[in-house]
Amino acid sequence: MPDAHASTGPFAALRRWSPPRDTPVRAVVLVLPGGRAHGRQPASTRNLAYRRMVPIARSVHRATHAAGAETWLLRYRVRGWNEPDRDPVQDAWWALDGIRTRYPDAEVTLVGHSMGGRTALRVAGHESVRTICALAPWIEDDEPYAQLAGRDLVVVHGTADHTTSPKASHRYALAAREVSDRVCRFELPDGHAMMRRAPAWTELVRRTVVGAVTGRLDPEIARAMQTPAPDGLRAPAIGAIGASS
Question: How many DSSP H helices and E strands does the chain contain?
């Protein structure tokens, strides 16, 4: 299996894992790392937030490359959100526009953690985006959600997260159900770093992305989307049930 290759642009940098040669690209998964509320320092591949998403990107690639999916991992220009500039949002738009130019018919799945989850939600209105998987997303009280209309949204949050708020992501998922009937949220006993239950986080991402790429929604995700609140927005994370503490 070929390793990833990197490319840079006027804003940020990308690491890409491609499908086998002669397999047409029919979908792209854009992976968005976390960051900080404020920070003008250049982002680096050595930053823990970026490194945390590398194994998730590789897992996504292994699960979807044969189906014609290309996986992109974005490295932002700088480490912070930096309101009102919202630097990672600018970078994600640049990446999405690049996907649209390169693969005009490809549907995009966004996978973002923490600040990357907030970024994914903000750019969900891009014409190429169909599915969003937000991991422990950073949510503020006035977070917009109208852009999620017609999209699939899977939110995952650890109940022991003290960095971003599980209650806020629950409120957001509830609001998102006003504009989309394909919204669910999973919980698992873990903190923000996704370390204690790493296999469960990865498995949920994998199932979300495989369903998006193949057009066959995972049965447990579909069931959660069809289940009314609160259960459909507090479902036990796939792979976490019965796991050791």
Answer: 6, 9
Q: Which of 23, 20, 24, 48 is nearest to 36 (CA)?
A: 48
pTM exceeds 0.90, yes or no: yes
Q: Which among 202, 40, 178, 30 is positioned nearest to 117, based on CA atoms?
A: 30
- Interval 145-197: pLDDT, tens: 999 999 999 999 999 999 999 999 999 999 999 999 999 999 999 999 999 99
CA nearest neighbour of 17 among 73, 56, 101, 55: 73
> Which residues, 6+ apart, have CB-to-CB distance to 62 below 8 Å?
1
DSSP run (H or E) holding 15: strand 13-17
d(CA 153, CA 143): 15
